[in-house]
Amino acid sequence: MRVAVQSEPFDLGAEVSAFTATVRGAGAVVSFTGLVRDEDGSLSGMEIEHYPGMTEKAISGIAEEAVRRWSLADALVIHRYGKLSPGEAIMMVATAAPHRGDAFAAAEFLMDYLKSRAPFWKKELSADGASWVAAKDADEDALKRW
Fold first, then answer.
1. Is it the case that residue 40 has pLDDT exceeding 90?
2. Using CA of residue 66, residue 67, residue 73, residue 79, what is the dihedral sign?
């Protein structure tokens, strides 16, 4: 299991290939990549803050829970911080399990956690100024299913 919190961009293809190459006993690998979304074309960027050490510990704990709950062969979580532009990859998860159902469920669990509970603070930047991203009810509702 690997958790990386980093400012540098990552190569999705290389990460998935490296992850898959080391997995033993899995019949399925699921990956998801989240992008900085610019819904109305006014976003110039996003700034993501975190507390080093605390963030990695929190994400590692939830990744360990996913590995246990779905008997995963392995899991990978990468989340970026710093200033990102629209369209840039902000995060990715990859899960490997003997069967696809567990790999998909664990990946969704990790994504829901990252979206609503991981200790990151996000600020959207636009020509009109900057605003902190508030928690959304839909994200909280998604987390409740777990």
1. no
2. positive
What is the per-residue DSSP string for 74-129?
A: EEEEEEE-EEE-TT-EEEEEEEEESSHHHHHHHHHHHHHHHHHTSSEEEEEEETTE
Among the listed residues 134, 129, 142, 136, the one whose alpha carbon sits nearest the alpha carbon of residue 45 = 129
Tokens matching residue 36:
């900085």
Overall number of domains in the chain:
1
pTM: 0.94
Mean pLDDT of 54-76: 97
According to the model, what pLDDT value does residue 142 have? Answer: 84
The CATH code of the domain that includes 35 is: 3.90.1170.40
